[in-house]
Fold this sequence. Notes:
The protein is built from ten helices and six strands, in the order βαααααβαβαβαβαβα. It is an alpha/beta fold and 239 residues long. The model is unreliable at 234-239 (pLDDT under 50). The chain has two domains: 10-21 and 92-226, HAD superfamily/HAD-like (Rossmann fold), CATH 3.40.50.1000; 23-89, DNA polymerase, domain 1 (Orthogonal Bundle). Strands 3-2-1-4-5-6 form a six-stranded parallel β-sheet, sandwiched between helices.
Amino acid sequence: MMHKLTLPAAIIFDMDGVLVDSNPFHLRKWIDLFQVHGVSFDEQELPKAILGPPNEVTFRRYLGDGLTREQMAELSEELEENFRREIGPHARAFPGVRPFIEECDAQGIAMAVASAAMGKNVRFLITALGLQDYFRALLTGDEVSHSKPDPEIYLKTAAKLGVDPTHCAVFEDSFVGIEAAKRAGMRCVAIASTFPLEDLRRETHADLILPDFEAVSLETLDLLFHGAGALKEIPPLTS
């Protein structure tokens, strides 16, 4: 007899690179900014450096510590306004995201988004994707004092949902995001949409690493909460 699925009380999604293929647009906005300001950068290393951390960290890394908070806020607003304008007509959820979210919603699993992005971006994209009605909470970079890999954003999201962090599953794509989820005491599924599977397997402590959302199901969550230990990848199906 098939056992009853063991599911999390809540699922928390990062946004960029998890729900939506927005990272190419984020890369483009930074490259444009660096070129305008004559900032040198390594194109191969850029994704790992900028995808995940908040804008302030990237400003300090590439533009130095001389910028005031007001200057960083002004640059950030310009940067993100350009991002929203460029991605707007192209915003699409990754294949498999909507069916999975609908499946979880039908099971009564609480869902939230926890993103280091500014609130304007998060609300803009969630609405553009037509997913706003599925999430009971949205937590953004505007609402935390410590950025990922600090677990603050995930712990605050669990508190908003009224759920014990150990009963939460997180979907992430970045190294800092995965570390934040694990430091919060949550189970973490890494989606290899931004970084290669092998890099995530070698450099993170994600409980499960999958190529995309088309490999995700309620049975995936059962493996996280009913199985033992870090799985790293879905075991092969047996007939």
